[in-house]
Amino acid sequence: MMRDITAFIEQFQKTGEYRTPPESLGKPRKNGLWTSLAYNFRGLGGSMLRATWLSHQGKFNNLRWQECGLHLLWETERMGTEVILEGFSNLKDAGPVVVVSNHMSLYETFAFPPLMRAFGNVAIVLKESLMKVPLLGQTFSTLKMIPVGRADPRADLKTVLEHGERFLREEKTSVLLYPQGTRQPHFDCRKFNTLGVKLAQNAGVPIVPVAGQTSFLGVGKYTKDFGPVDTSIPVRFACGPVIQVTRANAKEAQAQCVDFIASKLEEWGRVEVRR
Question: Burial letters for 88-106: b for 16+ Cβ neighbours within 10 Å, e otherwise?
């Protein structure tokens, strides 16, 4: 069934909420090799190939990006898995913000940023190595990105602060980053670094935590990007409160972000939280 992308975005902007309607939920698939192959080919593969093809033609823009991200969500629903979004009304009229989220799989790299686009421009802190992937790197280069190498934390900090402040202050563009660094199937509160808070404080903008449950797509054995699919696990994103950051309350703001994400993951009950 064809879906109206414009109508979806308009409704999401209006309510900040979404839950897969019954008529859009496919028959649950039996977990296993064929289900995983089907999703990785049609869902992830389809989104990536379409984005690459459009980029090669010079037609990849923010609307096309949203289409590719929503294609991934709708393929998830076709497999019989619910998609649930909540709390994003917090971003209405918030202006440019720093968004920090946990990082579980490749899923949120493709599906989450296009959803953020419903509330304004967004730049993503991304692994530099992804920019070098043939064809896909060309696609990423057309978007607002802050590439980091992860080999030198001090250099990465300087890069994110410098480019992030420019996006936030001069271009009025929000910045999305994953303070865990690498993808993890669990959430370790102690390893959720303070880069987001530092950027928000330096740029004079609020910070917003987002909890994501994307273990629907697991980490692959031979390649981390394309892993096994568990259709019984709903895909969830929950947006937390807009938190003002100052030098005086920076530690408290960090604690609020971590606690929101940890509490949501504990509430959903599918992800190990290490406090």
Answer: bbbbeebebbbbbbbbbbb
Cβ contact 261:187 at 8 Å? yes
| Exposure b/e, 32-41, CB count within 10 A at least 16 = b | eeebbeebbe
CA 61, distance to chain mean position in Å, is 18
Gap between the Cα atoms of 27 and 160, Å rounded: 43
Question: Can you give the pLDDT at residue 2?
Answer: 54
Whole-model pTM?
0.89
Under 8 Å CB-to-CB from 42, ≥6 apart: which residues?
Answer: 75
What confidence tens digit (pLDDT) does each residue in 175-200 have? 999 998 777 878 899 889 999 999 99
Count of structural domains within the chain: 1
Other CB atoms within 10 A of residue 134 CB? 7
CA 226, CA 43: separation in Å to the nearest integer? Answer: 11
| CB-CB contact of 176 with 124 (8 Å) | yes
β-bridge mates for residue 175, sequence order:
98, 123
Backbone angles phi, psi at 35, to 5 degrees: -65, -45
CB 99 within 8 A of CB 175: yes
Q: Are 131 and 239 in contact (CB under 8 A)?
A: no
In the predicted model, residues of the chain with pLDDT beneath 50 are 1
Task: Express each pLDDT in 38-81 by its tens digit.
Answer: 777 776 666 777 777 777 777 777 777 778 788 888 888 988 99
Task: Give the CA diameter of the chain.
Answer: 53
Q: What domain range is 188 assigned to?
A: 5-274
Please tell me the predicted confidence (pLDDT) of residue 1.
46
Domain with residue 96: its CATH number is 3.40.1130
